[in-house]
Design brief:
This protein is α+β, with helices and mostly antiparallel strands. The protein contains 2 helices and 8 strands, in the order H-E-E-E-E-H-E-E-E-E. It has a single domain, classed as Phage tail protein-like (STM4215-like, 2-Layer Sandwich), CATH 3.30.2000.10. The C terminus is likely disordered.
């Protein structure tokens, strides 16, 4: 799961509209307070698993070499990311502008994250951090898969898109 958070954080760090935002995976405890610049923290809030079809069959692996079909087995899932946006100061006036940039980045066609939904809470002031905080969430379609190599599935991976 750490890999998914890191991938999203790297992608958002490369988005032009977020170039002045420090982007981290989960907030490090050793971080200095108060916050001096806009900061976005990418975390994992939840994983909702759904059973796959017959015998956990998910379809074929789109990355199979030409002429070879590899079948995938596993479970489909919805991953919910937590995106905590901290903005120095008390008025929080820029939180929604940065939230809109996050939405633009995640919904961009080239992102390919299997995005289902993005939503946010109200802006709150965090006195301990001397910053306004807006918590957003993003739901991504995923699959926990393993290739058909033996009696049981041993090698799991997370994919944002699945081709059946």
């Amino acid at each position: 799961m750490t890999e998914i958070k890191e991938t999203i954080a790297r992608y958002l760090a490369g988005w032009t509209g977020l170039s002045r935002v420090e982007i981290l995976c989960e907030y490090p405890k050793e971080r200095a307070f108060p916050i001096r610049r806009p900061t976005l923290v990418v975390g994992l809030e939840g994983v909702d698993l759904s059973p796959a079809g017959l015998d956990s069959y998910l379809g074929r692996d789109p990355s199979s070499p030409p002429g070879q079909v590899t079948t995938l087995y596993g479970s489909t899932a919805i991953l919910t990311l937590r995106l905590d946006l901290y903005l120095p100061g008390s008025d929080g006036s820029g939180c929604h502008r940065l939230y809109e940039e996050i939405c633009a980045a995640l919904t961009h066609r080239a992102a390919g994250f299997g995005l289902l939904r993005v939503w946010c809470d109200a802006v709150k002031y965090e006195s301990a951090m001397a910053a306004s905080r807006l918590t957003a969430r993003a739901a991504l379609r995923a699959a926990f898969t393993g290739r058909e190599t033996a009696e049981e599935i041993r090698d799991y991976q997370v994919r944002s898109e699945l081709y059946v």
